[in-house]
Design goal:
alpha/beta, 9 strands, 38% helix, binds S-adenosylmethionine
């Protein structure tokens, strides 16, 4: 009971904070739409101090570190557990570690742990360099010819040797884990900082057929790249901001958001999360090459894709039900949804409805909008934010 009372107080002062917020020069707009209180402002921006450089790996539909930082700083204290059950590249758990909270997270795609874990406890650059020297670069194993659409033959040889060596490590140490994470991020992109020839941005992957077309259109052939040198360069960049401070041990897993077996009842103080938005992002296609490199059977990963809002809402409800089990009384959920279907479908309403009847107080919807248009209608949320870069966050407090 005492915990719940403390949570109420935290929520009240948090809501006051949202109402009064004008740190970036504009007052908060408050709107009641369909019975839902909205708080609209520019709560964090690109103008703010950049997030920690360790966040700088690409992932489709990831959120900015300022988003979890906003909630972690206001709703938790050091040592508290902060969870993301759809963790993607691990923005929430990493930010939790950087703020000395306990990082807790999971994702249905095993790739997610491989991207997150190494950045919670990064190795020294020297250890990365020494480990790269131990890789058996002359043993490429299987070399899928079709990948020559992306890579120079010698680059593909190096890449396959690294993959083969990584898959052979039964218990990868920290530098090995780190090297795999960096390599996963350098597979494809559109600058010489990546292993591939010019292709789509690094968080998306062209199919082989699409890449053959891109090459023909641009009249390009994959140039030779030095895989180890690129890994070292990116490592140096990621490590330049220093390591996370000492923090409670992380608890990461692979699994569905509605079955968080690795998380104990009432153990989490804050959830900051963002599920897939209907079928907007093709995670499977985007992550196909990364899964190949990591030895993950991409076809076996059951990523949620929902054509209809009803199906999506059912998934959200199941996830919220599980979150009701793991969040402690007085703990909070910040559940982010983006704009879909050109801003015509307000997914935050679906989340709001999905929480009905569950043991949560529904506090409101916070909209972080980076620019407002002048368009106004009676309550504004839809029109005013259409086409802008907005995060809509449903705020819940566990009763
Ligand atoms: C919008 S992304 C999250 C991005 C994350 N906030 C970040 O900053 O990287 C949604 C994630 O949900 C994962 N996912 C899809 N269906 C899932 C499910 N049923 N359970 C858990 N994770 C799922 C996808 O693999 C994807 O990584």
């Amino acid at each position: 009971m005492r915990e719940a009372a403390a949570g109420n107080q935290a929520a009240d002062s948090f809501l006051n904070d949202l109402r009064r917020f004008d740190a970036l020069g504009t007052p908060t707009r408050r709107i009641l739409a369909d019975g839902i209180p909205y708080f609209i402002n520019e709560y964090w921006t690109a103008r703010q101090r950049q997030g920690h450089v360790l966040h700088e790996i690409s992932y489709r539909a990831c959120f900015k570190p300022q988003l979890p930082a906003f909630f972690i700083s206001r709703l938790t204290g050091p040592g508290d557990a902060v969870l993301d059950p759809f963790m993607g590249r691990g923005t929430t758990p990493l930010q939790a570690a950087l703020m000395q909270r306990r990082p807790v997270g999971s994702d249905i795609n095993p790739l997610s742990i491989l991207l997150t874990r190494p950045r919670l406890a990064p190795p020294d650059e020297g250890a990365v360099a020494a480990t790269l020297q131990r890789v058996t670069w002359d043993q490429p194993g299987d070399m899928p010819d079709e990948l020559l659409a992306f890579y120079h033959p010698q680059t593909l040889r190096q890449l396959c040797a690294l993959r083969h060596w990584l898959l052979d490590q039964a218990r990868p140490d920290a530098p090995t884990d780190w090297i795999r994470m960096v390599a996963l991020n350098r597979l494809t992109g559109h600058s010489p900082g990546f292993f591939s020839v010019y292709t789509l941005p690094p968080n998306q992957a062209a199919s082989v057929a699409a890449q053959v077309r891109i090459n023909a259109r641009r009249g390009q052939v994959p140039p030779l790249r030095d895989v180890a040198a690129i890994i070292l360069r990116k490592s140096r960049q990621l490590l330049q901001g220093g390591k996370p401070p000492p923090h409670p041990a992380a608890n990461l897993a692979t699994g569905k958001a509605h079955e968080l077996r690795h998380v104990a009842d009432a153990s989490v103080s804050l959830v900051v999360t963002s599920p897939p938005f209907l079928d907007v992002v093709q995670y499977r296609q985007d992550n196909a090459l990364r899964c190949w490199f990591a030895g993950i059977d991409a076809g076996a990963v059951k990523i949620d894709m929902h054509r209809t809002e009803v199906a999506w809402q059912t998934m959200v409800r199941a996830s919220l039900q599980e979150l009701a089990r793991v969040v402690r009384p007085g703990g909070h959920i910040a559940f982010e949804v983006g704009e879909v279907r050109g801003g015509e479908m307000l997914l935050e309403r679906s989340v709001w409805q999905a929480a009905e009847g569950l043991p949560f107080a529904r506090l409101g919807v916070m909209v972080n909008a980076q620019s407002f248009t002048k368009t106004a209608n009676c309550w504004g949320v839809n029109n005013n934010l259409k086409g802008t870069n907005s995060n809509r966050i449903v705020l819940l407090r566990r009763m």
